[in-house]
Each structure stands twice: as C-alpha cells, then as structure tokens.
Amino acid sequence: MTDTSLAEAPWAALSNELRVSGARPSGAPDISTVACVTVHVDGPAVEVGRKQHPVGPFSAGRYGIRRGVRRHMDILRRHGVPATFFACGYDVEHYPELFLEIQQAGHELAAHGYLHEAWDLGEEEPALLEKTHRIMIERLGDAPVGWCSPSGRKSHRTLPSLMRLGYCYDASEKDMDRPYVVHDPAPGTPGFVMLPNNTVSLDDYPVYFTGGALPSEIFDNWVQEYRAIRQAEGYLHLTVHPKAGGGSGTPARSAALDKFLAVLKADPTVHFMTLRALAAHCLSQPQNWRPA
Amino acid sequence: MTRVMNGHRPATMLVTINVHGIGPEAATEPQSALYGRFAHGRYTYGGGLARVLDMLKRQEIAATFFWPVFEAERCPALLQRCLDEGHEVASHGNAFEDLSTLGDAERDVLETARDRLAALCGGGAGARPAGFRASNGGFSPRTLEHLSELDYRYDSSAIDDDAPYKLAADGGGAMIELPWSEGLCDATHFSRRVTQDRAYAHFLQEFDALIDVDGYACLTLHPRADKGVGRAARLVMVEEFLAHARERASVEFRRCRDVALSGDDAAMASAKR
C-alpha cells in the first residue's frame, strides 16, 4: 500500500550527506526513518508552577531528578542514542549538576519554559522565554537553539521571541507528520524550522495518564506507529517523561522505552538524531522542507 | 463485494466522516492562541484528510462527509476531491455553532450554512446537501422542523436507536434519522487517549453486537490526529476493522443519502414501530 500524497525517499539527501562525511558507513542502507528521542525532564518546576510544594504528595517531578533521568540516560547510553532533553529554567537553577551530566553525556539541552507554564502568559511571555534562556546559558555555558512548549500552549508572540533569542526550531506544533521550514536562513539569522511533536501516539504522558495504558500496550502502540511512519514520512518524534505519575521514569515503564529503542536499533534504516541536528539538516536545504 | 444471505438484503454500513480541522478550536479560542495544542486541527489540512480519502479509495468505499462551511472554505481542493471521488457532501453546520443557543437566528444560520455549502460544491441542482449532522452542542426544540422546511431528507445527529427511523413524530416532517453510534466513533475512544489496539477492540465488540440487531451500523471518523484517525498507524487499524466488517456481516457500504432516499423499509427496520 503506497500513499500517493507522500514524497518518495525523504531522507535520500541526508543518507548521502552522512555517507560522504563518514558519519554512516559507506555500505549503510538508505535511511527510512529519522528517530528523535525527546526527554521532557519536567522536574519540580511543574509542581512549583502549580503552586504546590514539590515534596511529599506532590513529588512526581522529583522522581525524575532522583531516579528517572539517570535511568533514561542509562538506557540511551546502552543503545548509543543521542537525545534531546527539554529543561525548565527552574529545574536547571536548582539541579545544575544533573543537567551538566546530561550535557556531558552528549545529549542536547533545549528550553521548556521556566515553571512549565501551562497557562496563558499574555504579555509576559517574551520575558519568561528570555529568563529560562539566560539561566541555561549561565548554568550550562551553552545557548539552547530549540524550544518545546510546556503543555503545548503557544501564542502569536512565541515565534518572534524565539527568533530574536537566536532559536532555530520549535517542537510544539502537531499539524504535520514531517518537519517544515517557516523562515529560510539569511545573513544574521539561522532560519527557523518546525519539528512537530506527536503528543497523540508517541508521547507517554497522555496515553498513561489519561488513556490508562499498560506499559506493554504503549510498547505495541509505539511499534505500530514506527511501522506506519517507516512507510510514510519517516519522521518519528518520541517524547518520554522521566517523572513518576504519568511519565516513564519508573522501572516497568522505562523497560517499555528500552524495549522500543531496541526495536528501532534493530532496523539499520532508522537513524537517530537530536532535534538540533535535524534542524540543522533541514535548514541546510530549506527548499526540500517547505510546508505542504 | 457483497453477498445476499438467505434472500435478505445484506447489512448496511455507513462510513461517515466529520470534517473537523481548526474549526472547533477557532470557535472557542482567540486567533492569537491557535498554535500548538490549540492547533491540532490543522493536521486535517496538513495530510489527515488526504490520507482518509486515500484509504477510502483503497477500500473502494463511497462515504458521507459532513462539512462545516468553516472547513469547506479553508480547503476547497479537498472538498472538490470528495465530490470527484464519489463521496456524499452533507452539512455540518456553519462554524461549530451550538444550535440550542441561537434562538430566533437558528433558521437563518441553518439556511445560510446549507446555501453556502451548496455554492462551494458548485451550486446547481445536485449541490444542495440532503443531510445534516450537528457539529457541536445540541438541538433546539425547533431544529428538526427547520431542517425539514429547508428540504433536508435526513438528519444524522442522534444516538437514540440501532437503525434508521422516521422523524415525523419529532417534528421532522418526511425526514428520517440515520443514527450514529458513540461506540463506533473514533473520537469517543481517542479523546480518552487510548491505544489503537484498545480502540480497535471497542469497535469490534460494538459492531459485532450492533450489526445483528437490525443489520445497520454507522461508523464515524475524523481526519484529525488527536481525536481522529488521520495518522497512518490508525488508518491501518481502521482498514483492519473494515475488513472484519466485510467478513463478519457481508456489509454493503452505502452513502447516507442513498439510504435516506431509497424508501427502503428493509433498511429502516425500526421505522415500522
């Protein structure tokens, strides 16, 4: 079954590029699917943002800090997968060592709000985006180039603010199954690309928290998504949360992530990238990534 | 291919598509907020609806698409594709208004929605929609009367029977009701963020029991990614379900208007009550 509306071989240029650079062996098969693993750290920032004291009953976020993040890093290390970790400014302020550890392991750190603000920020939005941006530069020594909205909320102020701060991608839209360039690179600007996330079928939180799925059910769902995506746009954007209470930090749910990454790793046509690397690729050839 | 079993007409299955794009969000959120989580609906335009049309083509099924004017104005090419590929275009109101709240304006809103959709479908005799389904909220006490006066032949907003029935007793004149099933609607399950396998299990169990009652079932799908089946993996599930329906009950896939205009009492078992 082929879908006539889809482009053929979306990753042909990337396959060639990586073979030429030596990043992929010369005999490696063409890439069918680019897999981006994103880890939404969502530590105590979430509870503090809800005006809850983030210990005792409201300590789901602390689970990520105490257990989940390192468990996910261990899984990623074993599979040799580079990931993108989205961080809230508050968490970076309070647990800088953990985020430096993530950075030193070769993963990307990107911005995810200050207190995981899930409400309408109004005119304060640009200042809050800048606040977390500054915290990440000060504590981690590196400016993030990507952002994903906490809760998925955005406004007409978001994109101009991100571009002013030098960001080149947003991972919050849900309207297409592939990246799309909204601003071409130009002198003085890196350009801007949307890297849509999939909060519907490839995000642990809604399916566990609202859908009541078992870890084995979410594994099956992810494998079905992978098989369908492999035949279609070949863009697999997975989101996991190392927190407790709806996330994947706990042992049984981390095991489902581990097993799913093993399925992807067993396919030599799947190529893992950070969102930053994918954004750079798309922006290097914007003509191939226009919105439909 | 359908089989006639024991001399009876095969079971009837309606495949209905509620064309929801960004309309539901636009009806409640300001334009400045239609991004990210309030822009799931754009998936319909970004590939979801084309995928659903591709699936129906593969399955050789003529379906009924309920189009709000709001969406028809945003994607005229996809509306035209529906018509070109033999699907029925029916009315889904204007812009996700709640009919129960319109008061004296209701009749005008319904008439405008009907005429505007007909114009977008090219105007002329065949363009006027024969059927209506509410897109949001409820009916007023006068909705069925308005629809009947506007020459609609059927409504498909209700969930109160297992088979079509006549609406005369409800003030709907000569219209018939083609009820849909909550359990055979993708949004029922996916808005609860269940896995594909669970939604499939719901579909199967609901269908197997329902189709034996009066030989009628109405499947309702949405092209969105969140509450619908626009994603490739979910359409795999839908196609497996359609294969099951063909196998289990030798269903004949019919468009709503064809059932409503057939005057076929066998397809309207409970109308005899």
Word description of this protein:
- The complex is a heterodimer of chains A (292) and B (273).
- In chain A, α3 (60-79) runs parallel beside α10 and α9 runs parallel beside α10 (251-265).
- In chain A, the strands form two sheets. In chain A, strands 1, 2, 3, 8 and 9 form a five-stranded parallel sheet that branches. In chain A, strands 4-5-7-6 form a four-stranded mixed sheet, sandwiched between helices.
- Chain A is of the alpha/beta class and 292 residues long.
- In chain A, 42% of the residues lie in helices and 12% in strands.
- Chain A has one domain: Alpha-Beta Barrel (TIM Barrel), CATH 3.20.20.370.
- Chain A is built from eleven helices and nine strands.
- Chain A has helices spanning 12-21, 45-49, 60-79, 89-94, 96-104, 125-140, 158-164, 204-210, 215-231, 251-265, 275-284; strands spanning 33-40, 84-87, 108-111, 146-147, 169-170, 180-183, 192-194, 235-240, 270-272.
- Mean pLDDT of chain A is 95; it is low at 1-6.
- Chain B is of the alpha/beta class.
- Chain B is built from ten helices and nine strands.
- Chain B has helices at 23-26, 48-59, 69-74, 76-84, 106-120, 143-149, 186-190, 196-214, 232-249, 256-262; strands at 12-18, 64-67, 88-91, 131-132, 154-155, 165-166, 176-177, 216-221, 252-253.
- The radius of gyration of chain B is 18 Å and the shape is globular.
- In chain B, the strands form two sheets. In chain B, strands 1, 2, 3, 8 and 9 form a five-stranded parallel sheet that branches. A four-stranded mixed sheet of chain B has the order 4-5-7-6, with helices on both faces.
- Chain B has one domain (12-272): TIM Barrel (Alpha-Beta Barrel), CATH 3.20.20.370.
- Chain B starts with 11 loop residues before the first strand and ends in an 11-residue tail after the last helix.
- The chains are: A alpha/beta (292), B alpha/beta (273).
- Chain A binds chain B through residues 1, 3-5, 120, 149, 151-156, 158, 172-177, 198-201, 206-207, 209-213, 217-218, 220-221, 224-225, 227-229, 231-232, 291-292, and chain B through 31-33, 35-43, 45-47, 50-51, 54, 58, 190, 192-198, 225-226, 231-237.
